[in-house]
Amino acid sequence: MAVELFLQILKAESIFGKYPLCITTSDIVIDSDDVDADDMTIECYDFVDPYELAVAVVDNVESLPIVNVGGEELISDFYNSVVKVNQKYKNKDTFVSVMPMSCCANRRNVVEYSRRPQHATIAFVAGITASKLVNYKRIITPSDIIEDIKRELGLDIDYMKAWRAKESALKMLRGRPADGYKKMPTYVYMLNSIYPNSHIRMHKSPDNQFMYLFVALQPFIRGFGYYRPIVVVDDNHMRGPYQGTFVSASILDGAGHILPLAYGVVDSENNLSWMWFFQQFKCAFSERNNMCVVSDRHESIIKAVSVIYPCIPLFACIWHLWKNVCTNYRKSKDKLTGEFFAMAKAYKLDDFDELMCKVGKIDNRVKAYLENVGFEKWSRVHAPINRGRMVTSNIAECINSCLVEAREMSILDFFEQVRILFGVWNRKNRDRSSFLSKKSLGGRFQQILQLNEAKSSRMMIRESTNYIYDVYEEGRKYIIRLDNRTYNCGRFQLDEIPCEHAIVVLKSKHVKEMKSYYSDYYKKETLVKTYEMSLCPMPDKQDWHVPPEVFEDVLLPPKYKRPLGRPKKGRKKISEKFSSTSNHCGKCGYEGHNRRTCNYFLKKM
Predict the structure, then answer these.
(1) Any alpha helices (H) in 77-183, and if so which ranges?
(2) Domain boundaries, given as residue ranges, for the chain
(3) Contact residues for 182 (Cβ-Cβ < 8 A; gap 6+)
(4) Would you state the pLDDT for residue 154?
(5) Where does the pLDDT of residue 42 fall: very low under 50, low under 70, confident under 90, or very high at 90 and above?
(6) Contact status, residue 473 vs residue 501, Cβ threshold 8 Å
C-alpha cells in the first residue's frame, strides 16, 4: 500500500523523489484522498511499534539538522562539526561529510569508528583467481590462493575455501566436464573439414556413451611413408572426473625428432581398447615391409598386435625390461646396469655373448629371466629386422610428459591441446629441415657422423683389394667391404651411417661426397617431403558451422564413480610381468625369507 501511495504522489510531482522514503511492512491502509499533492504534505501516523518509521514529507522547508524518528535523534546536517559518542546519523553520506568537518574543527588526525569484519566468499575469491588459471600449465595451489588473498586484500581464508574457489574458477573458465563430451561430434566434424583425408573415428556404446576416439591427421599419414616403420605405442591415464586412457603412436624422423602418427582416448587399458586402436591404425597406415612395434610389454598390447599384425614383430622397451629386473632381482641390479644396456645396444653377436657370460657369473637368475623373455625381443643384434637406434619407448613417454597438465582438462580441451602441441612440433621440424644444407644430415645424425669422423683420424688402414680394406683400431682389426657395404663392426648395417672405420677408408680413396653411403631416411629431401604439408589451425569455437544432424548427434559421458579420498597426482609404476607383494631377502633377492634364514650363500666357517 505504501508503495502505491508513493507512486501516486510521484506522478503528481516529480520533485517528490528527492525526499527519503520510509516504508513499513505493517498492514496499515492509507487512503489516497488524504494526500494533497499541491502542498506536498503527508500526515504522519503514530505506530505502536517504535522501530517502525512513518513517512514524513516536508514542503518548502530546509533539511533539519536533527530529525526525530521513532523517539531517536538522527543527525542530517552535512555541516555539523560536533561529534559525540552514541550519535546516530541519518545515512552514510551524512556521516562521511561530517567526519572531515569535525577533524578540521577539533584538529584531529585520526578518527576511529567501529567496522563490521569482512569475509571473502568463494565466488569473490574465484573471480580474483580465475585470471591466474587461464594458462593451464601454470600451477596454482590453494596455499598460493591463501597467500594472494592475504597479501592483496588482507583477508584470511581457510584451505577448503581456497580449494573450492579454485574449482569454481576452473568451472567458469572451462565449463563442466560433461559438456566436453556433448561437443565431441562437432569437434570431429570440424577436424574432418579442416584436415581432409584424415582417419578420425569415434565409437560409442549402445547407450550413446563415449568409449573410443582415434585421430590420425593427414599430415602425419603422409609423413609415415618416408621413414623406417618402427612404431612406438604407449598409454597414459587421464586425470579428469571421467578418467580414461590416452594412447599414442609415433616414430622418429630423419633428424631424430618425434613424428606423431596417431592418438586417441579409450576407456581403459584392456584387450578390447587396444584391439580397436590397432584396427584403426591399420586402416589409416596399412602395413609396410620391415615394420615393427615397440611397447612396454603390456599383455593387452601383445595380444592386440598378434591378432591385428600377425607378421609384425613386437619389441620390448629395454628401460621397462630393466625395471622388471630391478624389481625382482634387487640384489644384483647395481652390478648389472652397464652390462644389460651394453647387451641391448651391442652391434656384434660376439660382444653380446661375452656380456651375457658376465651376467651369468654375477647372477644366473637374471640370465635365465632374459632368456625366457627372448633375446630377439630386446637385443638389437638378435632382432629379425633392423630396429635402428629405437630400443626404448622414450618418444612416447616424451609426449606423455608434455601433456601432464592438459590431462586434467575436459576431453574436448585436451584433444585441442594435443593438436596444438603436435602442430608446434610440425612447424619447428619443417623450419629446421628447410635450413639444412644438401650435404648435411638431419640434426642428431649429423652429430653422429661428425663424431665418427673425429674417431677415424686415429686409425690405420691397409688395402687388400680395391674394395676390401683392413682397419686397425687399438690393436684390433676390422674388415671393410665397400662393394656390398658390409663392415664386420656391424654399425653400418644397423645405423645405415658410415662408421669411423668406413670413413677412414673413404678418406683414403679421396671420397668427399659421402651422401651415397648413408640411408635416404637422413637426407634433407626426405625431411622436406615429410613436413611439406603443414598442420593448419582450428577456427574459434564460436565460428564452428556444422549441419543440423551433427548437433542432433547425442554423446553422453561414460559412467564413472569417483573413488574415495584425495585424487592421486603421481603415477605408480609397477612391473609389467611380475608383482612384488612379499618381502625380499637382502642377500639373495629371493622372496619368502629374510637375511637371517637365507641359505642361498654358504656360510663362512
Answers:
(1) 92-106, 122-129, 142-153, 159-174, 177-182
(2) 2-106, 122-174, 177-317+392-440+539-573, 442-517
(3) 555, 556
(4) 85
(5) very low
(6) yes
